[in-house]
Amino acid sequence: MLNLVLFGPPGAGKGTQSANIIRKYGLIHLSTGDIFRFNIGNKTELGQLAKSYIDKGQLVPDEVTINMLKSEVNKHVNPKGFIFDGFPRTKVQAEALDEFLAEKDAKVAGMIALEVPEDELKERLRKRAIDSGRTDDANPEIIANRISVYNNETAPVKVFYNAQDKLHKINGLGGIEEITDAIIETIESLKD
Ligand code: ADP
After folding, report:
1. Which parts of the sequence bind ATP (predicted)?
2. pTM value?
């Protein structure tokens, strides 16, 4: 299995790049944000709970997120691997993922961290709100809260993978294809 963590602040381009990478490598894309939004759309119990956090720009509690992620992974038989997009977002989630994959004799091959300056992120989210209808993209205060949650709770996840020599930083500014190429180059260096 080739398991990758795609990492970056809100608006870094994780979703766009995931689509390009799964096409090339036949991996399964698991975006915790997408799964939460699917549940919100279908008005499930999980969706109602997640919405109460997402609408404030807060993280959904670890236990809920970890259990959901595990059950999504377990839906797949003999997967080639996964791209985890938006997960892990806390150190607790990162530790849980390592443990969970170890039970399957698998591991995270690497973290691909897209780096984009904060001004550019705010501008991208403002534009995305117009098309996506995402309520958490529409309000500058909620965006600011998400960026601050990212800096305080999520950025330490980079330190966690760096300590395992698995952190690969990619410049998230530039053309979409150019960034995809840089990611592919990194993935090639990770393959056995
Ligand atoms: P973005 O990367 O633009 O912030 P996502 O679609 O990844 O958007 O996530 C949207 C929201 O879903 C987050 O702001 C958070 O509230 C919730 N969420 C997504 N993934 C996680 C996670 N791993 N842990 C906790 N909350 C999460």
Report:
1. 11-16, 128, 174
2. 0.92
